[in-house]
Fold:
Amino acid sequence: MISLAGKVALVTGGSRGIGRACALRLAEAGADVIVNFVTSEKAATDVAEQIRALGRMSAIVKADVSEPDDVRLMLDFVGKQFRQLDVLVSNAATGGFRSLEKSTPNHFAATMNANVRALVTLMQEAAPLLRRTEGRAKVTALSSHGATFALPHYGLIGASKAALESLVRHLALEYGQQGINVNVVRAGLVDTDSTRNVPNAEAVFQHAQAKLMVGERRLTAADVADAVLYLSSSLSDLVQGQTLVVDGGEGIHP
Ligand SMILES: NC(=O)c1ccc[n+]([C@@H]2O[C@H](COP(=O)([O-])OP(=O)(O)OC[C@H]3O[C@@H](n4cnc5c(N)ncnc54)[C@H](OP(=O)(O)O)[C@@H]3O)[C@@H](O)[C@H]2O)c1
Structure:
C-alpha cells in the first residue's frame, strides 16, 4: 500500500481528465492536493471538494502554466498556505489538433510554452520547496506517443512531447543531486475532453483499442494516475529521468 500521508502535491491541470484522476489518486493515498486550473473553476472546485471529502486538505489555484508570472504566484501561494511541496505533477497541456501546414507561429509558441517551457518555470519556482522535502521530492510530467510516433493532426503536440521528454532527462541531471526525481508517464489514448476533439475520434479510439493487450479493458485516466502515484512515492526513489509507458501494450506493435 502506497502512503503519501504528510505529503503535499500540486497537480497542474487538475480540474479535468488525467490531471483530475491524478489529484484524486494522490489524495486517496494520503496527500493534501492543490488543484491548478486555467478556465474550469467549477470543475476544479468539484475536485477539491472530493479531496476534502477524503479527509485531506485541498485548494484550487487559477494559473496559466505558460505564463511565468502565473506560475510564480501559484508557487508563492503553495509556499504560504501549505509550507511544503513534495510532489509536482506537470499535467496541463494544450495545442489543438491541426496539420503542421495550417499551424501559425502563434500556435507553435502557445503549444511549446504550455507543454514544454512551463515545466522549466515550474521547476525553477518549485525547487526551493521541493528541496526541503523529507525523503525525495517527486516530479512527474505527462507525455504521449506523439513523442516518438507520427500521428495525424498531432505534429505540434507530438514535437512538444518529444521536447518534454528530453527536458525531463536534463532536469533529472540538474536536480537529481538536490533530492528531486523527475520522470515522465507516457500514456496511450485515454477518453478525455481533449481526445474527444481528435478528428475522426471514433476510428482513432477503435484503432488504439484494437492494439491493447489487456482483454476488453480500456485504458483510463485512473490507470495513468496509478503510474503517477508510483512515481510520486518512495517506491520509485531510484527511478530517475525515465519515461514509463502506460498504454496496455498499444505502442509496442504496429
Ligand atoms: N488523453 C489522452 O489520451 C492523453 C494521452 C497521453 C498523454 N496525455 C497528456 O495528459 C495530460 C492531460 O490530458 P487530458 O487529455 O486529461 O486533457 P484535458 O482533459 O483536455 O484537460 C486538460 C487540463 O489541463 C488544463 N490546462 C490546459 N491548459 C492549461 C494552461 N495553460 N494552464 C493551466 N492549466 C491548463 C485544463 O484546465 P481547465 O479545466 O481550466 O481548462 C485541464 O485541467 C496532457 O499533458 C496530455 O498531453 C493525454
Notes: The first strand starts at residue 8 and ends at 11. The pocket of NAP is lined by residues 12-13, 15-19, 36-40, 43, 64-66, 91-94, 114, 142, 144, 187, 189-190, 192-195 (CB under 6 Å).
